[in-house]
Design goal:
The protein is an alpha+beta fold. Helices cover 32% and strands 25% of the residues. It is elongated.
Length: 1407
């Protein structure tokens, strides 16, 4: 599908020469050309300065044999010299460094051909004595063999000039005309220099043979004997696949045949012009075959460029060299550049031309919906056109073909941006082809004029002219151009600017500048009116349209600057009538625009509402304006909303034109490469990295973009072999769907989504409010029931615009990746859409939309299956069929079949059974796999039961216990015990209270029957309260049980429950109401005090004892709880009723208890102080070691066995406060970073034997034992937990305060001060260590550990990305600087943990 474009052209005419030119060779490094003329004159010419630096007459140097002619010339880079050979056997060497000319050797038999190897280490000479001589670059002869050697297995054939053909057992005689055969041998090398081919004429057989030789001059193979008609012109394809050979089979047929290295023929193609092939040359990339052809009939010389695609050979371009007024000059020599797509030609008259070529996909330009995206393939005098908007046809086929008149070859072509007409340059004419259109089909008669004489507006149903893609464009115009004014074959970058203007670029002879030629013609009669030439001070590399302007075009100079050409119709052009055109620089951001490197391919567009350009250079760098976008791009195309490009790594990428362009080069690491580095690891962060990206798509290796259809989803790619592939990239598809949804084209959007397998939720998620507002339009457009069911079935409570289909046009407005994104769950979305659709369905036609209505019920969350069955039940009925039989309504049957397809039939059976409708149950059961013997018997048994007991049985079968209790309670008094058993077995106590307590306690005067029912219900209510209380007692919920027992009238149970719950006031109050004796009440008080004591409620226990006059026990209880002040007050208040001796005993008891508490607290504080001080010092050391430890991170696969073994043995040296690397990483198996330990060995450094882990067995999770051993991996965790336990709570501090106050009350002031000072010192130690403790607590938090692992994993990924980029690019310092600047900023979400101490006013201010 691609064509050859001449990017730049240099034409130099060397005058004042001695004779006609015939040979040349070029020094590409110094840009110097060496010419040889027919009179043996060596001319040294510099194309840069356009000057001849030296002329040497070889005949006058006395080093050339008399009558000798130079037949070959070659510049040798290694020797910095020019080697020449003459037909008399002279080998001359001209040194370019010192200008010396010498004869380095003479071959006495004469030389017919000289060819150097590609590495310039040796060369081959063909002599007139029919031998091949192999020599080194030091002029030492290595070998000499006969040029007509034969392989032992090849028979020899002979050819005579007779007109008959005879055959014998050993000799084959074939008629051959040898009068016109060029017998000069030709030598051609394979690209790697290991083989060369030679064509030679054999007098014995009278024909030319092709032989393939090894580098050592050993014959490798030769063509088959039956191959005839070969000519001497040959060329070996540089990639080594085939050898091109000229072959004449008949007088009217001239082929280019291809041979393999083994001498077998491998295809051919026929030349379309009759002439003599003078040279065959392959381009350096083996893509273009150049044929130097002299046309005998037309008496002119041309250079034809051929290219193969899909095994078909296209004539892509024909170049001719001529003078100023159209005179044709004969081409005598052609050469391809060794590294670039540049071909150079030389004519007899000394015209040296250099053409820089490139490949282009020529597609009709424009972003209009009417653009057919027609692609043109040039094939000689045929143009093959395919409109990709309508169909895709792979080459060499096409939708239709245009054969140019008079068998003229195409010189250039261009499309009209408005009408999409095609203009073609041929010879001295420009042909205009117009696409076919369908005739208009109005549905109403149009009146051309109304009563007022004005044209009325077109009716709404009038259809405009539509393109007819089934008919080829027709020739509708021709513009003739006088060759004295302009030679069209010199025009390149041909452009149809507007309806009456053509633009082209013309090269100037002997100048480093070009001219822009503007051709203005009359549209009506097709006559040329004016030709304007505008000089440009530099060479033009590319000329193209500027956006959609019809007055301006944009061109790039060879140094990368962009300029605007203002045509004669442009308002910004000069007012000069003789020169109305003008050139102005292209301004971008107030500066003259220049690409960082010249870009042979560029286009103008609008990006983010700004005029921009996109350029691609020949080094695969893609630029947006002056910013590098991609470093490995091989093709790009512009869509109306996206820039699409492919890369050499076989990826298609999309960049939105509505968003700001990226400021950094886009990087892409295939998911396969990432996963390959983490084999066996299934970490959640790695899975998140592989989320689908709509802007990226993998394509076939070597794919290039041919065309992208505007306002459509189609993108056409061409494979290296020539086949086409039409795809719909997700970015284009979603953009088109969004446009359709915004225009409420729901049917088109639905079909596009269905064809491209897009989630149907996108129809709603794109604009939920607008969709609900126009949901009736949605139903009107999508009338097909299956489509509606598909849409409803696909609904789910998720916003796909936040998960699957992120809008690339607004992606830059989204929050950054390190910001928490809003949830994608949309609660109630499915229910809202289903309810809205059902409402529309019911209003329009409930019978027609019956299945979608059912689907809306099923899809809701939770599914309303009971509503589904009721709807089906409402459709049931009977109808009479055509045979007069009464059958069930088909609609109900179809509906039930459909629901059975959507819902599990067993679940549907249970729902039907729950409706208590046995006919509906049987109807559903018939659609299931259930055995009729089972469910019919079951239903019959149910039908025999009473109504409420029947429903109870059904609810019990369906495990609907609340309904089962409700129905069983209404079945009668005889089932009361069953009700209680049902409540106990299924623990539905609360439901039972609601069921029996709804009318409990209310009075009714409706009769004795109602009174009886109320009494039964109240009785059951009390029983439920009783069993519920027993259940709560078993669950240790004593307080709740006590209130239930109290409500049920169970006083004894309520007292026990209050006692067990510690509510001594309630327990003693109920005991008094129950007339407890004093002994029973005292026993209850003792039990209450013991229970409160077990719960550490010493004050409440003492208060209980004090209230019931158990003074001694109350004082003892106060002392046990450190309430010494209350104990002293109680002892003093009871002294009036006690003897003095008893009071003294109580005082002694309080003092003894106080001193014991003092001693115990001092010992405990000292111990805790010592422990805490040691741990606070140690935790600082552990945290410092961990902060200073830097793990050695290596990418996967970058380590080696020796390094792994060494580091595993040295793991103790990299410990974290004594913790080994092995232990530190043992709990991070899913992390993406690795230490050098165990990557290769898999062993422990201290182990005495190796234990291999089997992959097929799952390892059981081991419980981690956290110990405080120094150097253990969990030492910091242990220290944090133990230090937290040693921090006293507020209640503990208050206990110390109560002891201090008691000491003061008893006069022990020094002891109180000692305890206060010691405890305050302990609290101060804790306060000073809280910051370090908080830091460690923050570090050991599991979430923070994962964040640190993520940080190390991201650092490793950045390292791997940089290594991957270095491997792919391997170059320049600039790219390396760009790589280092692409490091991502890692943001960690660390949760801070603050450890604090409860503050309490425990101490006395006197201390």
């Amino acid at each position: 599908m691609k064509n050859i474009t001449r990017l730049s052209e240099f034409n130099d005419l060397i005058t004042d020469s001695n004779g006609e030119f015939k040979l040349f060779s070029i020094d590409q490094q110094s840009n110097v050309v060496y010419f040889i003329t027919e009179n043996n004159q060596l001319i040294i010419y510099s194309p840069s300065t356009k000057k001849v630096s030296m002329k040497i007459e070889l005949n006058e140097q006395d080093i050339l044999s008399e009558g000798a002619k130079v037949i070959s010339i070659q510049f040798i880079p290694d020797l910095d010299a020019v080697c020449m050979a003459s037909n008399k056997g002279d080998i001359l060497m001209y040194s370019t460094s010192n200008g010396e000319l010498e004869c380095v050797g003479i071959v006495g038999s004469g030389i017919t051909c000289m060819s150097w190897s590609p590495d310039y280490e040796l060369f081959i000479l063909a002599t007139e004595s029919e031998t091949l001589i192999q020599m080194t670059k030091d002029w030492e002869m290595i070998n000499e063999v006969s040029i007509n050697s034969y392989l032992p297995s090849k028979p020899k054939t002979t050819t005579t000039t007779t007109t008959t053909t005879t055959a014998t057992t050993s000799t084959t005689t074939t008629t051959t005309n040898t009068s016109n055969i060029n017998k000069t041998p030709i030598i051609t090398w394979r690209g790697d220099g290991q083989y060369f081919a030679c064509s030679s004429y054999e007098e014995d057989i009278g024909k030319i043979q092709l032989r393939i030789w090894e580098r050592s001059l050993q014959l490798h193979s030769m063509n088959e004997s039956e191959v005839t008609g070969l000519e001497n012109q040959i060329s070996w394809r540089p990639n080594g696949s085939m050898i091109a050979v000229s072959q004449r089979l008949e007088q009217t047929r001239h082929d280019i045949a291809f041979f393999e290295r083994n001498g077998l023929k491998h295809g051919e193609f026929t030349l379309r012009s009759k002439g003599e092939i003078q040279s065959i040359q392959w381009s350096s990339d083996s893509e273009i075959l150049g044929i130097q052809l002299y046309l005998e009939d037309e008496k002119r010389s041309v250079l034809q460029l051929w290219h193969r695609s899909n095994y078909y050979w296209f004539l892509k371009q024909e170049i001719q060299c001529g003078g100023e007024y159209g005179s044709n000059e004969k081409i005598v020599n052609i050469q391809w550049d060794l590294s670039s797509p540049i071909i150079r030609t030389l004519t007899q008259m000394g015209r040296f031309s250099e053409y820089r070529l490139c490949w282009d996909y020529d597609v009709s330009q424009g972003f209009s919906e009417n653009n057919p995206s027609t692609v043109v393939m040039v094939d000689g005098n045929q143009l093959k056109l395919t409109p990709f908007r309508r169909l895709v046809v792979p080459p060499p086929m096409s939708a239709y073909s245009i054969e140019l008149p008079e068998k003229l070859n195409c010189l250039g072509f261009s499309f009209n941006q408005s009408t999409y007409q095609l203009s073609v340059m041929v010879d001295q004419s420009i042909l205009i082809y117009t696409p076919a259109i369908l005739p208009p089909i109005p549905k109403a008669t149009l009146k051309m004029k109304s009563t007022n004489g004005l044209l009325p507006p077109l009716p709404a149903d009038f259809k405009p002219n539509l393109p007819n893609y089934s008919v080829a464009p027709t020739l509708t115009g021709r513009v003739e151009i006088d060759k004295t004014k302009l030679q069209l074959y010199k025009i390149r970058h041909f452009l149809w600017l507007n309806q009456s203007t053509f633009i082209g670029v013309e090269s100037k002879t002997n100048q480093n500048s070009d001219s822009i030629v503007e051709m203005v013609f009359n549209v009506e009669n097709g006559k040329l009116e004016n030709i304007y030439r505008t000089s440009v001070q530099t060479k033009i590399l590319r000329l193209t349209h500027h956006l959609e302007s019809l007055d301006q075009c944009l061109f790039e100079s060879i140094d990368g600057y962009l300029h605007l050409y203002n045509s004669s119709t442009s308002p910004s052009s000069s007012g000069n009538l003789e020169q109305p055109t003008s050139i102005s620089p292209f301004i971008y951001q107030e500066n003259i625009f220049k690409f960082p490197t010249p870009c042979p391919w560029f286009s103008s567009c609008r990006i983010n509402e700004e005029d921009s350009v996109v350029g691609l250079n020949d080094r695969n760098k893609l630029y947006i304006n002056q910013s590098l976008l991609c470093t490995d791009c091989n093709s790009f195309a512009l869509h109306n909303k996206f820039l699409l490009f492919t890369t050499v790594s076989h990826v298609l990428r999309s960049v939105s034109l509505l968003a700001p362009p990226p400021t950094q080069p886009l990087q892409y690491i295939p998911v396969s490469n990432v996963i390959g580095n983490y084999v066996g690891h299934k970490s959640q962060p790695l899975q998140q990295q592989s989320n689908y990206d709509d802007s990226i798509r993998d394509v076939e290796r070597g794919s290039r973009i041919v065309a992208v259809v505007p306002h459509d989803t189609r993108l056409v790619l061409q494979m290296p072999r020539g086949n086409l592939e039409a795809i719909s990239p997700r970015s284009l598809t979603l953009a088109t769907i969004r446009e359709m949804i915004n225009n409420h084209q729901y049917l088109s959007a639905f079909l596009t989504m269905r064809r491209n397998r897009i989630d149907m939720n996108f129809l709603y998620d794109h604009n939920p409010t607008d969709f609900i507002r126009h949901i009736e339009d949605f139903v009107d457009q999508i009338q097909q029931i299956d489509y509606l069911n598909l849409f409803i079935s696909s609904l789910r409570d998720e916003d796909t615009t936040k998960t699957l289909f992120i809008d690339l046009e607004t992606k830059h407005l989204l929050p950054p990746t390190n910001v928490v994104k809003p949830s994608s769950i949309v609660i109630g979305k499915v229910n809202l859409v289903c309810d809205s659709l059902r409402k529309v369905f019911m209003e329009k036609d409930s019978i027609k939309f019956n299945l979608p209505i059912l689907t809306t019920y099923v899809k809701k969350s939770p599914p309303e299956l009971d509503q589904v069955l009721r709807l089906i039940q409402s459709l049931r009925g009977e109808e009479i069929n055509e045979q007069g039989e009464t059958i069930v309504n088909r609609l109900a049957e179809e509906s039930l079949d459909y629901i059975v397809f959507l819902v599990d039939v067993n679940k549907l059976y249970d729902i039907a059974l729950g409706t208590y409708d046995f006919e509906l149950v049987i109807m559903v059961a018939q659609k299931s796999q259930k055995d009729p013997k089972e469910y019919i018997t079951f239903l019959q048994e149910l039908q025999k039961m009473e109504k409420f007991y029947q429903r109870y049985s059904i609810d019990k079968y369906l495990s609907r216990w609340e309904l089962a209790l409700y129905n069983l309670s209404r079945a009668g008094k005889k089932y009361q015990q069953d009700c209680l058993d049902l409540i106990i077995s299924n623990k539905i106590y609360k439901e039972a209270l609601v069921n029996y307590g709804s009318n409990s306690g209310s009075s009714s005067s409706s009769g004795n029957e109602n009174d009886t029912l109320i009494e039964e219900k109240e009785e059951m209510f009390k029983k439920v309260l009783n069993i519920y209380g027993d259940h709560l007692v078993e669950s240790n919920q004593f307080e709740d049980a006590a209130y239930l027992f109290l409500q049920a009238g169970e006083q004894k149970k309520s007292i026990n429950a209050f006692r067990d719950s510690g509510l001594w006031e309630n327990a003693t109050s109920q005991a008094k109401k129950s007339s407890f004796t004093k002994e029973q009440l005292d026993q209850l008080v003792i039990e209450l005090s013991e229970i409160l004591k077990r719960n550490s409620k010493f004050q409440q226990a003492a208060q209980c004892l004090e209230k019931f006059q158990h003074i001694d026990q109350a004082i003892q209880m106060y002392c046990e709880g450190y309430y010494f002040n209350e104990a002293l007050l109680l002892s003093s208040s009871s002294s009036s009723n006690q003897e003095n001796f008893e009071q003294q005993q109580q005082q002694q008891l309080i003092k003894k208890s106080l001193l014991d508490s003092l001693s115990h607290q001092i010992n405990e504080i000292n111990n805790n102080y010592e422990k805490y001080e040691k741990m606070s010092t140690r935790i600082v050391i552990v945290r410092t070691n961990k902060l200073n430890y830097v793990p050695l991170l290596l990418p996967r696969g970058q380590g080696d066995f020796e390094t792994g073994s060494m580091m595993s043995g040295m793991s103790g040296m990299f410990s974290e406060g004594g913790m080994s690397v092995n232990s530190a990483l043992s709990n991070v198996t899913t992390s993406s970073y690795v230490s050098t330990y165990s990557q290769q060995t898999g062993t422990f450094s201290t182990a005495t034997k190796t234990r291999l882990k089997k992959k097929d067995k799952k390892q059981k999770p081991q419980k981690v034992r956290i110990t405080g051993k120094e150097g253990s991996p969990y030492e910091e965790d242990y220290l944090v937990e133990q230090m937290k336990k040693l921090i006293p709570s507020a209640s503990q501090q208050e206990s110390i305060g109560r002891i201090i106050k008691g000491l003061v009350l008893l006069g022990l002031f020094n002891d109180a001060r000692q305890l206060s000072t010691l405890y305050q010192k302990y609290l101060d130690l804790i306060d000073t260590s809280l910051d370090a403790l908080s830091a460690s607590a923050t570090a050991i938090l599991p979430e923070n550990k994962k964040e640190k692992e993520r940080e190390q994993r991201l650092q490793l990924e950045q390292l791997e990305e940089q290594q991957l980029q270095q491997q792919q690019q391997q170059q320049q310092q600039q790219s390396q600087q760009q790589q280092t600047s692409t490091n991502k900023i890692i943001t960690l979400n660390i949760k801070q943990v603050v450890v604090s101490r409860d503050k309490s006013n425990w101490n006395l201010t006197i201390f």
